[in-house]
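Our consortium's second objective concerns turning raw sequence data into structural hypotheses that experimental partners can test. To show how far this objective has progressed, the report includes one record in full. It was chosen at random from the queue rather than selected for favorable results. The single chain below, 404 residues long, was entered without modification.
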Amino acid sequence: MTKSIKPSAALQVLTRRWGTLGKWRRRLVFGVLAIAAISAGVAIYVKFTAWPPRLVLSVGGPIAPLAFSPDSTMLATSGREKVTLWDTRDGHLVKTISTPGVDVSEGLFTPDGRTLAVSGFHFKEREHKNRLDLIDVDSGRMRASVAAPDGGYGIDGVVLRDNGRVARMPARGTELRQVIDVDIVTGRVLDDRLLAYPVSKFRGAITADGRFAASAHDHLPADPSKTHTILIWDLDLDREVTHWGVSSRPKTMVALAFRPDGKTLAVAPFYGPVELWSITLNADHFQRGPQPRLLSAHKPNYFPTHIEFFSDGKRVVCDSRWMVQTSFSLESLDYLNTRRIWNRPFLPANELVILDPATGRRVGVLNHESRPVFSPDGRMVATNPVPPSSRGFFVFLRDLSGER
């Protein structure tokens, strides 16, 4: 029969042994216990503050979200020379469409959901490196292809006009701007014009109707008066509407986005908060609010790469990438993925910050994710993890009702 040890006796034994360890050994034990407690706290925090995806989509290779169908039941994703269609209700693979020689970067469905217009980089052609492809969703066949200018910065987004019957493709080359209108049904080019609209090295924004475009210029030798300004251009009439500076001091503006109703322009500068400008745009009149509303979106060490409104315009998301600084810092170690707890760096390589334009407060943050695509009903978002997992490439699909 074993003799039971009373708690008080066990405590006395531990106390005597603790006293014989010595000062440095006691400090070592304290350090190990402290690290274990901190690590457990971080693990618990990550588990209970995460915003888990509802579906995880993967095809075993590079994959990125493109667009939701009009009824939000289907999601198109891009891959290496292919486009994949998924059912958003259960995540099963619906169809894979081949796009030989093209890495698709953007896409959108027509209002009837029967056509998918995608744009991308054609790396096998010498004359034209960017093009727009029209894909029949039912058959998976390519209906037509239209080439954009060679070289330069590529296609500056695609929008649908005339109730989805015409696709407008503003493109920017190294020294020129071009706008191409394509008939969705036949693939015939309806209009192909060179514009006087000055080229910007940063991507611009286009209104939902394709009529007006906005671009940011940090340096414009041809017209110094437009340096550090936002420029609004009428694409139909090929003329400037207005331009203005966003700050009293020079500031590089990186990303822009129109609210779906065209009444607000969001600007993400290199440093500083996101600016929301109230505007009125029509064919004969332009009006801008006196001062912008400022939203705290990204940390100083994060470079905004993209900004976009939700489909319903009630939220705005800022996609930011962590910048490498030349001076040594703990952030530099984090960027090299050397400071980790359970394979999670302290500072994310990318962060998506979801903001409420009305109040300016954050309503959600997704760390290590990029390339947000929103469903037309505003209830879902698809994103890419950054960097990709060692197990492969994924697209995360989330319900926005659980945003934090």
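The partners drew two points from this record. The two ends are 58 Å apart (CA to CA). The longest helix spans residues 23-49. Both points have been shared with the crystallography group to help prioritize constructs.
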